[in-house]
């Protein structure tokens, strides 16, 4: 199809969320998925070669134009984003949910050895975590999982894209870290 | 070693017993697969004392860990009877959770080091958080009775269309239906009440869908509003 790359580029510029190949396909229905995929890859490598202010990232099952991290400080002068900084405790809780989902609160707390009600609430509020339902065990506890927003914020294609947790890098028997 | 314990800076206040344990293991350069249990128990208890002395409330979690450590320590002291392979190293009780916790910590570090949206990388049109309803549309929050009315209508439509299906092979649980609905909401953010029943051809499925919606409202996953003009009921993902 003619101009397919330009069409997709224009869609990417306007879209307010990552565009999946299917979504693009439903808009540009004359094109084949393969064509769309190729065009996206071409765009990605064009942006890469140009090495400009933004790149094309595959996140949350779609594609999105994002600014390069090198220019974050400048952007923060332009807009004041709501800080998304998560505390160490929040990150740990999120990591547990991400890797072990679906998971109930009790199991999360078991791993961290500490209550995490407040943190869970905050993660739910920020839509990084969602309630999937209830587990059919006594007490019918809520079951938690991560959201699409989580994938978007952490620049992950999907859940399989989560980095493999490193083998106890911190305290391996081979090389103990010398940090007082 | 005695005075070491007082050198701990304030930012090292540990959030949980695991944190503290990891800190002590690191500080004494222990191998987590061969923890000198007597030493770590002693250190751990000293630390609790210290926390008490500066008036930090010690949560039950810390005490629980202390008792676990003490238990392991005393188990280690007991002579082993019976078959040799029967008893595993009592320290495993603490090593396994430690391993798990360390894996999670490294995973958390990995996550933090990524290019975070809104922190390191930005998009042109950040998500609109609010419900995307036209300002002009006057909407009201729907009560249970309006919902039941709408539900009745859908049920009537079915009996006209299909009659009653007595036997259905595949039934879906409310929980599974919730999961499906969440998928829909994740992509669409909002749908009309009727849309959700569009594909439900048999009565039991309609009932399950309805129950799923009620449950989701209860869990505050969605909110339901009705347009005063058109009467269309819309569900929004929160």
Fold topology:
The complex is a heterodimer of chains A (180) and B (238).
Chain A lengths: L3 H11 L6 H7 L5 H18 L3 E6 L2 E6 L4 H7 L9 H13 L2 E2 H8 L4 H9 L3 E6 L7 E5 L1 H6 L27
Antiparallel strand pairs in A: 1-2, 3-5, 4-5
Chain B lengths: L16 H11 L9 H17 L6 H18 L14 H21 L26 E3 L2 H19 L11 H15 L1 E3 H4 L6 H16 L3 E6 L5 E5 L1
Antiparallel strand pairs in B: 1-3, 2-4, 3-4
Helix pairs in contact in B: 2-3, 6-8
Number of helical regions of chain A: 8
Q: Can you tell me the overall shape of chain B?
A: elongated
Per DSSP, the total helix count of chain B is 8
So what's the overall shape of chain A? Answer: globular
**Secondary-structure element order of chain B, as H and E?**
HHHHEHHEHHEE
Element order of chain A: H for helix, E for strand: HHHEEHHEHHEEH
Q: How big is the Rg of chain B? A: 29 Å
Strand order of the largest sheet of chain B: 1-3-4-2
Task: Give the chain pair forming the largest contact, with residue counts.
Answer: A-B, 66 and 56 residues
The quaternary organization reads as heterodimer
Please tell me about this protein's structure.
The complex is a heterodimer of chains A (180) and B (238). Helix content of chain A is 44%, strand content 14%. Chain A is globular, with a radius of gyration of 20 Å. In chain A, helix 1 (4-14) crosses helix 3 (33-50). Chain A has helices at 4-14, 21-27, 33-50, 72-78, 88-100, 105-112, 117-125, 148-153; strands at residues 54-59, 62-67, 103-104, 129-134, 142-146. Chain A has 180 residues and is an alpha+beta fold. Chain B is an alpha+beta fold and 238 residues long. Helices cover 51% and strands 7% of the residues of chain B. Chain B has eight helices and four strands, in the order ααααβααβααββ. In chain B, a hairpin with a 5-residue loop joins strand 3 and strand 4. In chain B, helix 2 packs antiparallel against helix 3 (60-77). At the A-B interface, strand 2, helix 5, helix 6, strand 4 and helix 8 of A face helix 1, helix 4 and helix 6 of B.
